[in-house]
């Protein structure tokens, strides 16, 4: 629908609106159904209108939505406790989004630097990374497109290639102002890029951080909450980070961000040093608790692992003959299909095949469906996606 009204044009929008959602499906006004392989950009962990989730939220609406952080909030305490015990972290700061969770992480790294009397602290960040669009997080982000026009950027970031330990070791030898590494275990916006070996990459990063007394700060905003088959992707390794950020899937659609820290960081933060009016309110934390309930009750970790492998394997098999499909990468239900050229128009084309998908990094189709997707739905997704790619190839050749 062409609108002459006043939504600022920061997004390119698809020519579609939806009326209703149920599980992995979205329905338009005419009743056509679309498989939601975008899930609000890796947000709708439980799909749409999950009965346990919606009835719990309705309950919460009847009690109260918002209080303030001047009082104790039961749902917040419960969610913090669960997240801490499931990750081995010691305390949680709640905010409302991924960039805020990372903003807090960056501020905590500065406080850590301050406690060590480092006056010009530097954080090592990665090429091709994405951490958000606030001034600090866009400065940390490794994408000129995200930064352009917003200079001067925040100082204090040193950039190295992703999955390249030698570059980090070189910096360790030369620069005594480094206090932390901030990294996504798997790059999301950067094109679903996995390190060659996730577990050893994280183990090695941990080792370097320990040797140099740096913080290891993991941005699990996109990889978190079961998406990769574990609650957090770092749980594929034996390590624990010092700081862990989470958002997106944590509230299954209700905005929430979380910055988890270990004792070392917990001990240096004092009341008044950080805050958020809405952060950790009863509605958002109830959404987080309900999401964790269903993740466990329905073992969505296992489902993400099984369905993710099935989808990636089938797409690989069925697109073998298409030489413009360069790579199919995945960890759980975080799936990237890299094409040989930019393919943003596939987002619109996919609607004709009853699919909602996204394209990231210009040429990578991103498939991040709700974690409740079942066998039949995965098959629908694969067959419609491969059909679309075959037709797309024919059209491009014609
Ligand atoms: C890894 C990562 N970090 C941070 C963000 C920013 O999250 P938000 O858009 O909720 O601020 C994103 C969003 O895509 C992300 O993928």
TrEMBL record:
<dbReference type="InterPro" id="IPR015421">
    <property type="entry name" value="PyrdxlP-dep_Trfase_major"/>
</dbReference>
<dbReference type="InterPro" id="IPR015422">
    <property type="entry name" value="PyrdxlP-dep_Trfase_small"/>
</dbReference>
<dbReference type="GO" id="GO:0045303">
    <property type="term" value="F:diaminobutyrate-2-oxoglutarate transaminase activity"/>
</dbReference>
<dbReference type="Pfam" id="PF00202">
    <property type="entry name" value="Aminotran_3"/>
</dbReference>
<keyword id="KW-0032">Aminotransferase</keyword>
<dbReference type="InterPro" id="IPR005814">
    <property type="entry name" value="Aminotrans_3"/>
</dbReference>
<dbReference type="GO" id="GO:0006526">
    <property type="term" value="P:L-arginine biosynthetic process"/>
</dbReference>
<comment type="pathway">
    <text>Amino-acid biosynthesis.</text>
</comment>
<keyword id="KW-0808">Transferase</keyword>
<dbReference type="InterPro" id="IPR004636">
    <property type="entry name" value="AcOrn/SuccOrn_fam"/>
</dbReference>
<dbReference type="InterPro" id="IPR050103">
    <property type="entry name" value="Class-III_PLP-dep_AT"/>
</dbReference>
<dbReference type="GO" id="GO:0042802">
    <property type="term" value="F:identical protein binding"/>
</dbReference>
<dbReference type="InterPro" id="IPR015424">
    <property type="entry name" value="PyrdxlP-dep_Trfase"/>
</dbReference>
<comment type="similarity">
    <text>Belongs to the class-III pyridoxal-phosphate-dependent aminotransferase family.</text>
</comment>
<keyword id="KW-0663">Pyridoxal phosphate</keyword>
<dbReference type="GO" id="GO:0030170">
    <property type="term" value="F:pyridoxal phosphate binding"/>
</dbReference>
<comment type="pathway">
    <text>Amine and polyamine biosynthesis; ectoine biosynthesis; L-ectoine from L-aspartate 4-semialdehyde: step 1/3.</text>
</comment>
<keyword id="KW-0028">Amino-acid biosynthesis</keyword>
<keyword id="KW-0055">Arginine biosynthesis</keyword>
<protein>
    <recommendedName>
        <fullName>Diaminobutyrate--2-oxoglutarate transaminase</fullName>
        <ecNumber>2.6.1.76</ecNumber>
    </recommendedName>
</protein>
<dbReference type="InterPro" id="IPR049704">
    <property type="entry name" value="Aminotrans_3_PPA_site"/>
</dbReference>
């Amino acid at each position: 629908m062409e609108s002459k009204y006043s939504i600022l044009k920061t997004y390119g929008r698809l020519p579609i609106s939806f009326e209703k959602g149920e599980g992995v499906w979205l329905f338009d006004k005419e009743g056509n159904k679309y498989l939601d392989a975008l899930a609000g950009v890796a947000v709708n962990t439980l799909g749409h209108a999950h009965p346990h989730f919606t009835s719990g939220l309705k309950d919460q609406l009847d009690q109260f939505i918002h209080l303030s952080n001047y009082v104790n909030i039961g749902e917040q305490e419960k969610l913090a406790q669960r997240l801490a015990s499931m990750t081995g972290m010691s305390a949680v700061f709640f905010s409302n989004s991924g960039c805020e969770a990372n903003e807090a992480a960056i501020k905590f790294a500065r406080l850590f630097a301050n406690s060590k009397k480092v006056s010009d602290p530097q954080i090592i960040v990665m090429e091709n990374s994405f951490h958000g669009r606030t001034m600090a997080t866009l400065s940390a982000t490794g994408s000129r497109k995200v930064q352009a026009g917003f200079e001067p950027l925040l100082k204090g970031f040193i950039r190295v290639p992703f999955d390249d330990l030698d570059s980090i070791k070189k910096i360790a030898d030369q620069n005594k102002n480094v206090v932390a590494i901030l990294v996504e275990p798997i790059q999301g916006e950067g094109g679903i890029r996995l390190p060659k070996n996730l577990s050893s990459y994280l183990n090695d990063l941990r080792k370097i951080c320990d040797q140099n007394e740096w913080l290891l700060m993991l941005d699990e905003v996109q990889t978190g909450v079961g998406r990769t088959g574990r609650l957090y992707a770092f749980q594929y390794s034996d390590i624990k980070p010092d700081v862990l950020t989470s958002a997106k899937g944590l509230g299954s659609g209700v905005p929430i961000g979380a910055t988890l820290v270990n004792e070392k960081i917990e001990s240096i933060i004092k009341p008044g040093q950080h805050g958020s009016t809405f952060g950790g309110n009863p509605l958002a934390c109830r959404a987080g608790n309900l999401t964790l309930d269903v993740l466990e009750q329905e073992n969505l970790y296992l489902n993400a692992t099984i369905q993710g492998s099935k989808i990636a394997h089938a797409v690989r098999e069925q697109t073998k003959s298409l030489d413009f499909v360069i790579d199919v990468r995945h960890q759980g239900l975080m799936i990237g299909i890299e094409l040989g050229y930019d393919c943003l128009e596939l987002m619109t084309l996919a609607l004709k095949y009853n699919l909602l998908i996204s394209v990231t990094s210009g040429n990578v189709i991103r498939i991040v469906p709700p974690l409740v997707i079942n066998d039949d739905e995965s098959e629908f997704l694969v067959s419609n996606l491969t059909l679309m790619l075959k037709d797309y190839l024919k059209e491009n050749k014609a």
